[in-house]
Design a protein that fits this description.
15 strands, quercetin 7-O-glucosyltransferase activity, UDP_glucos_trans, transferase, globular, alpha/beta, 7-stranded parallel beta sheet, binds uridine-5'-diphosphate-xylopyranose, quercetin 3-O-glucosyltransferase activity, 6-stranded parallel beta sheet, single chain
Length: 453
């Protein structure tokens, strides 16, 4: 233990809701093993989480970026700018600090890579997503020309399977809703440079994607550690949310409302922290949910509906259902992990963010996938064609499609089959994080690797 205490690890998370909690779970684990952990955070999206992580040190880099920079640049250019600004700041910080032995950084904050190299510090990349996603970015870079096609030629090409990347089609590769293809390629080139790292850590499990683990090892030639789902490890601590102020009374009351609903009867709808919905689609969604006659719990994140700032202009029938009925509950942010674990929740309509996928899998809840951007397409294909605990709703939504999709997920034979598979998959991930399981073993190998670096 004395020797372990000497290793000091600097961890640098990406400042986004879908990234920080999983890295903090890894930090808690490493801290529980005796490593001295310092978390370096950006000023952008900063909120204080230190009280929830006693024993871990925190330092903030003053990148000077604000929410209005994010709005004017868009997510893609914002991430590129964040990396350019932070590289010299981290170098300055580390030049005056001689107590760092190892660096772990999120794949989207790649600025520590050069700094670590200059200072001769070993480093690893942490991906809050799957190994399949990492490979899919390389596939997209190799096949960008497919997105230059037009009309019918483009449509049929994108439906084809990507060679040596079964079961993904070109259209499942992680293109973005947040900027141009050219800027995305620049970002992915930066994110995908990994051969100088001593390893790649994924918040995923071998039982979910062992095929892609070996493919990732072949691609980068370094060890790949599938250590997740990290929120299921014994040392996991709930990281306060960026949307913490949304943990208001009404939002927490959704759990009491769920207590009154029948087993597996409620469909939970949430689109994560970034995805947007067009107003027309939102109205069709609202009416389809009402028409499905299935109880629903819906997270409507403030500002997440393009062209609508409040719920006032929703159809009367929807407002009546939400205001007066027992059938519906609307919140601005939900305690999602608790919601998914609740016995009343029988289905999840989601954009397929990786954390949401892992949380639905670890709760045994089948899903409807409606991917919005990036890795969500990859995750959707994994859910629908590898694990088969979900189906995708593609194309333009109308209320009838919503109604039939909800009923398909919640009742009937297909629903039973998906629920059975989801229950089996839940058991597999539980085993993987338990002593003797693959994720547990990967965490232990990671400890050994940092120790011997
Ligand atoms: C982003 C990307 O969009 C996603 O594709 C990538 O895989 C991770 O980073 P996000 O879109 O926010 O994440 O989705 P997701 O990965 O699902 O993360 C959302 C997190 O917020 C989940 O941990 C979920 O539990 C939490 N959440 C969401 C809540 O706690 N309450 C809510 O109401 C909604």
């Amino acid at each position: 233990m004395d020797e372990i205490l000497q290793k000091r690890v600097l961890m640098i998370p990406a400042p986004f809701e879908g990234h920080l909690p999983s890295m903090m779970n890894l930090a808690s684990f490493l801290s529980s093993k005796g490593f001295a952990i310092t978390i370096v955070r950006t000023q952008y999206n900063f909120y204080d989480i230190s009280a929830d992580f006693p024993g871990i040190n925190f330092f903030t880099i003053d990148d000077g970026l604000t929410e209005s920079d994010m709005s004017s640049l868009g997510l893609l250019d914002f991430i590129l700018e964040l990396n350019s600004l932070c590289e010299p700041l981290l170098k300055e910080f580390l030049t005056h600090k001689d107590d760092v032995d190892f660096i772990i950084h999120d794949e989207f904050v790649y600025f520590p890579r050069q700094v670590a190299q200059d200072l001769n510090l070993p480093k690893m990349v942490f991906s809050a997503s799957s190994a399949a996603t990492s490979i899919s970015r390389c596939m997209l870079m190799e096949n960008q020309d497919k997105w230059l096609l037009h009309g019918e030629e483009a449509r049929s090409k994108l439906e084809e399977l990507v060679p040596k990347f079964h079961p993904f089609r070109y259209k499942d590769l992680p293109v973005t809703a947040y900027g141009s293809m050219e800027r995305l390629m620049l970002l992915y080139r930066n994110v995908s440079k990994r051969d100088t790292s001593s390893g790649i850590i994924h918040n995923s499990s071998n039982c979910l994607e062992n095929l892609f683990t070996s493919a990732a090892e072949d691609t980068w030639g370094v060890p790949v550690y599938l250590v997740g789902p990290l929120h299921m490890t014994d040392s996991a601590t709930t990281c306060p949310s960026l949307f913490e102020e949304e943990r208001n009374c009404n939002n927490l009351n959704c759990l009491r409302w769920l207590d009154k609903q029948g087993k597996n009867s409620v469909i939970y709808i949430s689109m994560g922290s970034l995805a947007m919905t067009q107003k027309e689609e939102f109205v069709e969604m609202a009416m389809g949910l009402v028409q499905s006659n299935q109880p629903f719990l819906w997270v409507i994140r403030p500002g997440s509906i393009t062209g609508q700032n409040s719920l006032d202009s929703l159809p009367e029938q929807f407002s009546q259902t939400v205001t007066h009925g027992d059938k519906a509950f609307v919140v601005s942010w939900a305690p999602q992990k608790e919601v998914l674990r609740h016995r009343a929740v029988g289905g999840f309509w989601n954009h397929c963010g990786w954390n949401s996928c892992l949380e639905s899998i670890s709760s045994g809840v089948p899903m409807i996938c409606r991917p919005y951007s990036g890795d969500q397409r990859v995750n959707t294909r994994l859910m629908t064609h590898v694990w088969q605990t979900a189906f995708e709703v593609e194309g333009e939504l109308d209320r009838k499609i919503v109604e039939t999709s909800v009923r398909k997920l919640m009742v009937g034979d297909e629903s039973k089959k998906m629920r059975k598979r989801a229950t089996e998959l839940k058991k597999l991930v539980e085993d993987s994080v338990s002593i003797g399981g693959s994720s547990y073993g990967a965490l232990m190998s990671l400890v050994d690797s940092i120790m011997s670096s």
